[in-house]
Amino acid sequence: xxxxxxxxxxxxxxxxxxxxxxxxxxxxxxxxxxxxxxxxxxxxxxxxxxxxxxxxxxxxxxxxxxxxxxxxxxxxxxxxxxxxxxxxxxxxxxxxxxxxxxxxxxxxxxxxxxxxxxxxxxxxxxxxxxxxxxxxxxxxxxxxxxxxxxxxxxxxxxxxxxxxxxxxxxxxxxxxxxxxxxxxxxxxxxxxxxxxxxxxxxxxxxxxxxxxxxxxxxxxxxxxxxxxxxxxxxxxxxxxxxxxxxxxxxxxxxxxxxxxxxxxxxxxxxxxxxxxxxxxxxxxxxxxxxxxxxxxxxxxxxxxxxxxxxxxxxxxxxxxxxxxxxxxxxxxxxxxxxxxxxxxxxxxxxxxxxxxxxxxxxxxxxxxxxxxxxxxxxxxxxxxxxxxxxxxxxxxxxxxxxxxxxxxxxxxxxxxxxxxxxxxxxxxxxxxxxxxxxxxxxxxxxxxxxxxxxxxxxxxxxxxxxxxxxxxxxxxxxxxxxxxxxxxxxxxxxxxxxxxxxxxxxxxxx
Length: 510
Prior knowledge:
two-stranded antiparallel ribbon, 14 strands
């Protein structure tokens, strides 16, 4: 799973998955978006049409704005070469851009709906098109207006990403209603089937709808924790025909010899039905996974998690540049909040407290004060009264210590703003696991201690995945996923989700 697959979701230890009605396993009408594969072609066409409209507007709009009507001709510098109209060049640029987006598979069903791969491919195709144009223009000595190209490229990328994001929001909404999904048949041992179904149910926007399962010694008409059992592992071909399932997911091979898996793959209709192998290893992102066929064996290599010197440098430089810009941009907000805190309750404007950071080193974390003076001394009694003093996530429900202004500051995360200075000082990062106090760290398990392998952050994966509603186990799981699968694109995705969570905090913000 890519890091973006966790963002915006609320993992739950005990997923509430009621037993699906048997209408979900009846043959799907292939004319409907939710059944068969036509929805993939339909969605691909919609993306292609809107991609084309965006590119036409960007390229021709830039031509008219930058060059005007009087300078609509590019004059190559080579002797004996005739002039070339910009209208024709713009048309060629749009067509080449569309071709690149298609060749790089930016609209394939494998990347739409979730993850960052779709956006990365859009950017990569765009940069490659302009790179090829620049090379040919240099070799052929064609004089193309630089401003025209320099405006078209970033404007086109931004609008393409915005258009793809808008379509993704629509697709996610449809998938949560059960439409535009792959119909999945799970095949494997009962325990692996349940585990895989839980994960797919937890993330409906990924577009996998479980219609049933085939397990060893399974009998049609029974169920397994709400999952309809449609037969045994020898009945897969029959179940495929009856349910018109388009995706078979092998959850384990304990009772499936290699020849049986191969036979299942041969039974699939080329281009319309798909075979997916779900390994037992979880919470590993794509960049750490590499497949390498050896003597006919599709070996999967999983790299050990590590921060290279280059990654640390990139993360730190991004923190410094982005934080400095934020401090300048938000300076009026700092002033307004400081006046509100000081004018509405007794005590200092800022609150500092010792937290545990990178490699277990303590540091002073700063916030705008959102509680009454002396609130720290009341924490132990409040935790004990609600029975959470032995859980390393010291959250007090309906905390009576919070001031009226502090409640607003916390809801919109304005109390966290002074931590930008922690980031500038190097004790924190913009994105990372939430820093905790020494008493919480003392309750860490061995797995939770891995949260300390990177700088703590102002925002993080669990903050944009449910905030105060998540359990401690879910919090650790998301933080460990972040620590072990860090990428700059992942940080950018989390920050974008953070902006959304701050503007529209919802009920999970306290």
